[in-house]
Automatic annotation (TrEMBL):
Keyword Disulfide bond: yes
Apple domain boundaries: 20-98
PROSITE patterns registered for this protein in UniProt: KRINGLE_1, KRINGLE_2, PAN
UniProt name for this protein: Plasminogen
Species name: Goodea atripinnis
Matching SUPFAM superfamilies: Hairpin loop containing domain-like, Kringle-like
Length: 358
């Protein structure tokens, strides 16, 4: 699995994540975050360095690096979500938890994640620009709300949660789909689940994601920050049918978690019907032949190939008829074939950027 290999290699480079020594921070040993906006201090201990970060006024401090040997403290305006983490053996990186979460508490006034599209999929306008919409809320007028880049925020305490101005000239602003940190249920396959269930459906306690015992694995939180592998909570970082975790039992490597389905509406997507962007998860077109011309098998059928990628196991993935889809984070849409000798193949779906060329 490519994701597994990438996670393993990057995780090995960065080092392991240790326990949080400072409340409100996540620690990564042997790491350093690149930041143009930073300040250096000489301190007595890591607690003093945390205090420097909390008291920073020249920029919003999202993380700090502490070099114990030299008692150096570097506060930074960036973290692993927006900048590269590099190896630095003598350093420990501490990142403020609230800037790592991609979920919200309450109405999301404290949301500091990196979602940058509205609930309808429109790209957000940067808070510091005046086109196509002249904003009433800017980094200068509301400095405490971290109106960074074009990320969704809630500077006016909107009861419906974080929002942004949009890049659509005909639509000034719209809300964003930011999941609740406390909603202990799943939409679709639970890729966005951020709850705190940490026991599997068969009663096993989950292993912490930053731990390699009793099971060694490549799902390192530092290597996969967009997957929010926090604590030992059930997550779905790899396109599985639902959230899961490694277990603390040496005899049970991993297990699915039982988390009820949400009764609220799932996040909406902007369907792509003629071309794809990224890995094509939003493709909802009607191509039904593979790249070598083989006819696709219906997703609801189990012949000639039995499988688990069914509409029931993968809701929200558009597994209609026998159309090419990407329900499980493949590199592009694919399907099972109607030929017994070939189980599955990728499909040839044009890329939107190619389709836009003259």
């Amino acid at each position: 699995m490519d994701l597994y290999k990438a996670a393993f290699l990057l995780g090995a480079f960065i080092g392991s994540v240790g326990g949080t020594e400072i409340d409100g921070y996540t620690k990564t040993e042997g790491a350093w975050v690149l930041s143009l906006n930073k300040r250096q201090y000489m301190v007595n201990n890591v607690a003093d360095c945390a205090a420097k970060c909390d008291a920073e006024t020249s920029f919003t401090c999202k993380a700090f690096a502490y070099v114990e040997k030299d008692q150096e403290c570097w506060t930074a305006a960036t973290n692993s979500k927006t900048e590269l983490i590099v190896r630095k053996q003598s350093s420990a990186l501490y990142e403020k938890n609230k800037y790592l979460l991609e979920c919200m508490n309450g109405i999301g006034a404290d949301y500091r994640g990196t979602k940058d599209r509205t609930k309808t999929g429109t790209l957000c306008q940067r808070w510091d620009v005046k086109s196509p919409h002249r904003p009433n809320f800017t980094p200068q007028t509301h400095p405490l709300y971290d109106l960074d880049s074009n990320f969704c925020r809630n500077p006016d305490l909107d009861s419906q949660g974080p929002w942004c101005y949009t890049t659509d000239p005909d639509n000034r602003w719209d809300h964003c789909n930011v999941p609740s940190c406390t909603e202990n249920c799943i939409h679709c396959n639970g890729e966005d689940y951020r709850g705190n269930t940490s026991t599997t459906e068969n009663g096993f306690t989950c292993q912490h994601w930053e731990s390699q015992k009793p099971h060694n694995h490549g799902y390192n939180p530092s290597a996969l920050p967009e997957k929010y592998l926090e604590g030992n909570y059930c997550r779905n970082p790899d396109g599985s049918p639902r959230p899961w975790c490694f277990t603390t039992s040496p005899s049970k490597r991993w297990d699915f978690c039982f988390i009820p389905r949400c009764i609220s509406e799932p996040p909406t997507i902007v369907p792509e019907t003629t071309c794809i962007t990224g890995e094509g998860q939003a493709y909802r077109g009607t191509i039904a032949v593979t790249e070598t011309g083989k006819t696709c098998q219906s997703w609801s059928a189990q012949t000639p190939h039995g499988h688990s990628r069914t509409p029931e196991n993968y809701p929200c993935k558009g597994l209609d008829n026998n159309y090419c889809r990407n329900p499980d984070n493949e590199r592009k849409p694919w399907c099972y074939t109607t030929e017994s000798e070939t189980r599955w193949e990728h499909c040839t779906v044009p890329r939107c950027e190619d389709a836009a060329d003259p």
